[in-house]
Write a structure and sequence with these properties.
Layout lengths: L22 H9 L7 E8 L6 E2 L4 E7 L5 E6 L3 E3 L4 E3 L4 E7 L4 E2 L5 E2 L8 E4 L6 E3 L2 E8 L5 E8 L5 E2 L2 E8 L4
Antiparallel strand pairs: 1-15, 2-14, 3-13, 4-12, 4-15, 5-6, 7-8, 7-9, 7-13, 10-11
């Protein structure tokens, strides 16, 4: 039976084709990998555990190595829900710049605000806490990891108060298939 393939990611009720949005375009590019045994989802966190508490206006440069052959697809930086005030608050306030060392390529012309990487596309909420799952903020196109797989991540705290910053990067990591 012939049928039009449907991306399992497009079944997300919060994802629609709208002019100016690129989620559907990257979802279509990633759909073929959804059931591919050569790739598995892996999450990379920056900065390291001992560097994630920032002083006011603190700055950290962090080196991250991702397995060459993998594909970076997006960021997990959900907004926090404040149940007491029944409101949505912003993610931790910081700027970030990511440089692919092998390609000598910066992801953005200048460091971007965490607001540009955050998203509020909830997938579930724990009934007892404010913990919430969220769909990632997808890149406009998958970024292939080549060469050494080395990335430099520069993070600057911008709120003026000490806070914990964790940027989680979603990757389809290439894995050995026998």
């Amino acid at each position: 039976m012939n049928s039009i393939p449907i991306s399992p990611l497009s079944l997300n009720q919060l994802t629609r084709d709208y002019w100016g949005q690129y989620d559907p375009a990257i979802i279509a590019q990633l759909a073929a990998l959804a059931n591919d045994p050569c790739y598995q989802i892996k999450f990379y966190k920056a900065p390291a555990d001992d560097q994630e508490v920032f002083a006011a206006y603190g700055y950290v440069t962090y080196g991250l190595r991702i397995t060459p052959g993998s594909i970076i697809f997006g960021f997990y930086l959900p907004c926090v829900v404040n149940l007491e005030a029944i409101s949505l608050s912003v993610p931790p306030q910081f700027t970030v710049q990511i440089t692919d060392v092998s390609l000598e390529h910066k992801f953005w012309d200048q460091a971007v605000s965490s607001l540009m990487l955050s998203n509020f596309k909830p997938t579930f909420q724990d009934g007892e806490t404010t913990n919430m799952g969220s769909f990632p903020n997808l890149l406009c196109a998958p970024h292939p990891v080549v060469g050494s797989g080395q990335f430099d991540i520069e993070i600057q705290e911008t709120s003026g108060a000490a806070q914990r910053i964790q940027l989680v990067i979603g990757v389809l990591e290439v894995c050995g298939v026998s």
